[in-house]
Automatic annotation (TrEMBL):
Lineage, highest ranks first: Bacteria, Bacillati, Actinomycetota, Actinomycetes, Micrococcales
Keyword flag NAD: yes
Domain of life where this protein originates: Bacteria
InterPro entries in the cross-refs: Gfo/Idh/MocA-like_OxRdtase_N, Gfo/Idh/MocA_oxidrdct_glycsds, GFO_IDH_MocA-like_dom, NAD(P)-bd_dom_sf
PANTHER family: BCDNA.GH03377
Pfam families assigned to the protein according to its UniProt record, in alphabetical order: GFO_IDH_MocA (PF01408), GFO_IDH_MocA_C3 (PF22725)
Residues annotated as domain Gfo/Idh/MocA-like oxidoreductase N-terminal: 6-121
NAD among keywords: yes
Full protein name: Gfo/Idh/MocA family oxidoreductase
Positions of the GFO/IDH/MocA-like oxidoreductase domain: 131-266
Keywords: NAD, Oxidoreductase
Length: 371
């Protein structure tokens, strides 16, 4: 076998823990360097996970053994950092969203194509055994032809746990851009590309207060719509109704229900990699009791980093990777179209499209050495 794929991480914030935990455990990749604007924080994360080198973002891009950059920066600079990696001749795995505007995201994909490198975009949760096992159940006809879906994400907001939550209420985030990628990606995996959307929204508060950590008590502005109701139409047929909110005292998250001609299936939270999958079939009479049937979950459960690993293996094996930049762009285009519908009213056609999204094999083993 050849050498594992060399990885460098840019962004040493909260989410880097789960990425580094898993990437340093996969034998097909080696994390060589962690970079951050705060070099001390990068060094601390590198030390915590046994990574030899640390520095700023430029140190990651200049590292000769880095083939794949994992971009964990804040959404506002996703496209900028990913483009810099592409220009350095590196493949890129980016946290979601791919960018905060269409122009920057499209330019990134154009430069990647010109440079002959790949772009992959989170979420990779949808590649986990939860969503993928449910997808296989739908594909084999367990609920017949899919007709419509209902998804829900509602709670009080990330200031309940995050020590610096302001960026999650800034442009490019909010419940729609921050959490929407999980739900829209799942729906595209099942129904195919989105054709059009219509939405309404509201903002409960113009400012919020940090609740935990060293900045507790400080106020920060809310730049985004904090509650959004969406209706979605898909190119190949099918519809969805979705709620995204950080204004709700009632916490209800991870709801994904897909109804077909022969039943309804409940999919695990798309912000996780596993969970219960169950379906119900139509009743034959009013007296019959509705019975839930569990669907077997197949595959090894890991965590964030799964998509980057699939990208790394795909590079070595010269095959398509699953969470492509084109899929990430279509999801972003859909979410921005939802924002535009909230702002001006009426249906908005989603200009982009994407091909059939590949499925993760049930026997994909992240802990096997394959390259």
């Amino acid at each position: 076998m050849g050498a594992p794929v060399g990885v460098g991480v840019i962004g040493a914030g909260n989410i880097s823990d789960t990425y580094l935990e898993h990437l340093t455990s996969f034998p097909d990749v080696t994390v060589h360097v962690v970079g951050d604007l705060d070099v001390d924080r990068a060094r601390a994360q590198a030390d915590a996970y046994g990574v030899r080198a640390a520095g700023d973002g430029d140190a990651v891009l200049a590292h000769p053994d880095v083939e794949l950059v994992v971009n964990l920066t804040v959404p506002a600079v996703h496209a900028e950092i990913s483009t810099a990696a592409v220009e350095a001749g590196k493949h890129v795995w980016s946290e979601k969203p791919i960018g905060v505007d269409r122009a920057g995201a499209a330019a990134l994909l154009e430069r990647a194509a010109a440079r002959g490198v790949r772009v992959g975009v989170a979420p990779d949760t949808v590649l986990g055994p939860g969503v993928q096992s449910a997808r296989r159940a739908i594909a084999r006809g367990d609920i017949g032809r899919p007709l419509f879906a209902q998804t829900t994400f509602q709670w009080q907001g990330p200031e309940l746990f995050h020590p610096n939550p302001g960026f999650l209420y800034a442009r490019g985030a909010g419940p729609l851009l921050d959490m929407g990628p999980y739900y829209v990606s799942t729906l595209v995996h099942v129904f195919g590309p989105v054709a059009s959307v219509v939405a309404v929204g509201q903002r409960a508060f113009d400012t919020r207060t940090v609740r935990v950590g060293p900045f507790a008590g400080q106020e920060f502005p809310v730049e985004i719509t904090s509650t959004v109701h969406v209706l979605t139409e898909f190119e190949q047929g099918g519809q969805a109704q979705s709620l995204y909110s950080t204004d709700s005292a009632l916490r209800r998250q991870g709801v994904v229900e897909i109804t077909g001609t022969e039943g309804t299936i409940v999919i695990p939270d798309p912000n996780g990699f596993s969970g219960r999958i169950a379906l119900v079939r139509p009743l034959s009479s009013d007296d019959e009791e509705q019975v839930w049937v569990d669907v077997e979950q197949e595959g090894v459960v890991v965590g964030r980093g799964l998509g980057a690993l699939d990208l790394a293996r795909a590079v070595r094996e010269d095959r398509p990777h699953l969470a492509t930049g084109e899929l990430g762009y279509h999801v972003l285009d859909t979410l921005l179209s939802i924002e535009e519908s909230v702002e001006r009213g009426g249906f908005v056609e989603v200009a982009s499209t994407v091909g059939v999204v590949g499925a993760m094999p049930a026997d994909f083993d992240p802990y096997a050495r394959t390259v």
